[in-house]
Amino acid sequence: MIAAKLWIEINAGVIPEQPMPEFRRRFELTNQQVYPRPDATPDEKERLLSEWRRVHGEALMYFLELQNPNRVNWARMDWIWL
Questions:
Q1: What angle do CA 41, 5, 78 make, to 5 degrees?
Q2: In 3D, which of 32, 23, 79 has the Cα closest to residue 56?
């Protein structure tokens, strides 16, 4: 059973607090992708950690790319557990 999802949501825009849809991006992980099972092997734990790093890295890079005043005036990264 998947207990929860983690969304890393990136929003940006020109007018403060008014996100522009073309800059919105959501990166999603499930609870099972974030927390290994208690009986997980070291290889499984490493695979989950690698997947976490990949998704988090993609979100962070996108967020950093948006911090360009020629494109938008603000950018925000939110972590949302569902």
A1: 120
A2: 79
